[in-house]
What we know:
The chain is built from five helices and nine strands, in the order βααββββαββββαα. By secondary structure, the protein is α/β, with parallel strands linked by helices. Strands 1, 2, 5, 6 and 7 form a five-stranded mixed β-sheet that branches.
Amino acid sequence: MPMLDVYIPEGTFTAEREAALMNQITEILIRHEGFDPADPVTRSVSWVFLHRPAAVYVGGARADMPRYKVVPSVPEGQLDTAKRAGVIAEVTEAILDAEGGGWPRDPGRIWVFPTEIPEGHWGGFGEVRPLSRILGRLTGDDAERAARLAAERIAASRVERTTLPHSAR
């Protein structure tokens, strides 16, 4: 159930190319969370907020080529180190591919910040939505399975966070 904030400078893509890119980024996140990108329930809770900076500045001067920022937010426990790395690599490649050779293929113009929202901090429907409840909806309302899966994912995430060197977090 990703929420994505995608920053694309105004006028960078045609409407069709941009729509295809938003779909592709959504599918990348859904897949890395461990769900089927074709599932309509999963897709219905996967939102993209497209931000249109009028200008991007690098080192205090207006950038001469597009720069992009993508901030995928997911509930705690959804992305381990390998999945975060996969999201970063695949989103970067998707954006570069979408440019279609219009600018030099430079991954240094793209920043991706996968962010896990701590358990108890994800809100929806006017209330806190714990991971077990989110997973329940995405796993066919099997509350027991969802609770077990949520507990496993959150525990693994917290162990990983405490065992990684500070520079790798």
